[in-house]
Amino acid sequence: MGPAKTIEAVPGAEYPGNYHDQGFHPVHLGDTFANGRYTVKHKLGYGVTSTNWLVHDSVGGGYASLKIVDAAHSPGSQLDVLKHLQSTYDENEQGSQYVMTMLDHFMHDGPNGRHLCIVAEALGPSLAADIEELWSNEIFPPKVAKHLIAQIGLGVRYLHRRNVAHGDLHPGNILLYSPQIASWTDEDVERYLGQPDVRRLRSTDGTSLKDDPSRPKYLIPSPEESSFLRHCFENPHVKICDFSEAFMPTLPRSRSLATPHLYRPPEGLLGNLPHATLEADIWALASLFHVLFTGGYGIFHGDYDDDILRAMVLLLGKLPEPWWPLWDKRSETFDVEGKVLPAYKKVVPGPVKFLDVSAKVMGDREERKLFEELLRSMVRYEPERRITAEDVVESHWFAKYCGIVL
């Protein structure tokens, strides 16, 4: 037997190497799940631990999304959190409409193991999608950004009232929603998602691959999103999704914080948080708000943890105990008091702006002042000093500029 062949990657699709024992479940168009109830019609996307599919529900009579978790992560706490949200759901509570709703769940046995399958409302692209065709500067218009921020803020408050820390708040986990999707016709699916782009798997040396039940015969890249985006932004409505990193105190087990580093608080960069927290969510939420106004820049940005920590100290001052001595590279930029070293001042010649939002986006001086005050209160170093999600939606900026009626 010769060496195993390397499979060629398909741009826009999951890595072929994810199909293995305890990995992804191989899916083909037309496959059915839950004793034939759900039929796969199109690919919606994929994540680190799952693939997502548009399915037709023969019982409900409409379209839904089917998330198939890899076998290794299927025993996690995600289902416990979703069941808790399902049991405490209150359609009359403000914010409930901005959190994804689980419609069904089941386990599916496949060649790579046992997979958790979550059926939810069919949703659109995420806020990480390329919006250049809609807005050439790739920045949301101020009115749209505020509309999105208001919904996300209310959604997080709804979660926190239920003691659920999301643990992974970033644009990729905020998905657009259109109530029309559930009742789409086949023609609508093609209009907004196009025909599925079926790409047969090939080896990198160009030779054919033998059929292997552990992997699909083909991959399907995530659909081209411009038409779908345009449809969703006619009346933008978002939902907070992906509870694979979420935590609540009643869980029998937990996972360490897995928020993308640009959205992590200092205790998540320098400590080893055993699980997501409400306070870490608030820090991530502040960066998310900033991103929606700037087209991609968080409050503290950098390619590496040291760059992010450096940005924190430049903007907020010296890190308090116990984190300051835990940062090994602090002395490369700062003295013992947290002041910038003379040599580094040449690299950063002037004061660093906390709020990097252009005047075109937020020209009103009072609004800029109130928005900065809000963000600063959300990114205080000490977790216990950060404001709560309740405080966020009751803030002066929310009340005056987001049109929130509480």
Automatic annotation (TrEMBL):
The EC code for this enzyme is 2.7.11.1
Q: From what organism does this protein derive?
A: Rickenella mellea
Q: Does the keyword Transcription regulation apply?
A: no
- Name of the featured protein: non-specific serine/threonine protein kinase
For this UniProt entry, the molecular function terms from Gene Ontology, in alphabetical order, are:
ATP binding; protein serine/threonine kinase activity
User: InterPro entries, per this entry?
Assistant: Kinase-like_dom_sf, Prot_kinase_dom, SRPK
- Give the Protein kinase domain ranges: 38-398
Q: Where does the signal sequence lie?
A: none
SMART domains hit by this protein: S_TKc (SM00220)
Q: Name one Pfam family in it.
A: Pkinase
EC class of the enzyme, as a word: transferase
Q: Name one GO biological process term.
A: spliceosomal complex assembly
Which UniProt keywords are present, listed alphabetically? ATP-binding, Kinase, Nucleotide-binding, Serine/threonine-protein kinase, Transferase
Q: Tell me what reaction this enzyme catalyses.
A: L-threonyl-[protein] + ATP = O-phospho-L-threonyl-[protein] + ADP + H(+); L-seryl-[protein] + ATP = O-phospho-L-seryl-[protein] + ADP + H(+)
